[in-house]
């Protein structure tokens, strides 16, 4: 059945492509944050362990919302690690001996990366009058800017 939500097929495709990039960045950030939650050590272990858990839990919910929005636009949401790796702007972390504050620095940078990716998707939503996608992106901008600020505050 053809999608008929008042947004052209071309506009829906452009929005879905932008959201797919946000989804891939969010998923890679989720994996990295979960990894750090498991492997953080040192004097800030307890607070960072809990902070990372809050962050990856929030990201897990956001990933689902982003994918469902892509589907509601009539497009397939990427869902494999290979697909995510192809479109993400966030580098996979394969280091095994990372100090706690370096973990904090890396995911602060990655939260800012998600912010930039989300900002790039906003104009297409605005031009198409896609308030639902725009609202979703606005929420992501708020969460990632606050998270980046909180993480940067550890480094001062």
UniProtKB/TrEMBL annotation:
Family stated for the protein in its record: Belongs to the Dps family.
Domain Ferritin/DPS, first and last residues per copy: 17-156
Species of origin: Rhodohalobacter sulfatireducens
SUPFAM superfamilies hit by this protein: Ferritin-like
Cross-referenced Pfam families: Ferritin
Protein name: DNA starvation/stationary phase protection protein
């Amino acid at each position: 059945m053809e999608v008929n939500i008042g947004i052209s097929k071309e506009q829906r495709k452009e929005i879905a492509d932008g959201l797919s990039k946000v989804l891939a960045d969010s998923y890679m950030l989720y994996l990295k944050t979960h990894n750090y939650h498991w492997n953080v050590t040192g004097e800030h272990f307890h607070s960072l362990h809990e902070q990372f858990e809050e962050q990856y839990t929030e990201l897990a919910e956001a990933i689902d919302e982003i994918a469902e929005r892509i589907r509601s636009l009539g497009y397939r949401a990427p869902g494999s690690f290979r697909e995510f790796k192809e479109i993400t702007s966030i580098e996979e972390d394969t280091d095994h001996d990372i100090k706690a504050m370096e973990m904090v620095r890396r995911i602060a940078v990655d939260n800012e990366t998600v912010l930039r990716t989300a900002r790039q998707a906003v104009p297409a939503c605005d031009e198409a009058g896609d308030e639902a996608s725009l609202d979703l992106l606005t929420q992501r901008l708020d969460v990632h800017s606050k998270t980046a600020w909180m993480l940067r505050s550890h480094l001062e």
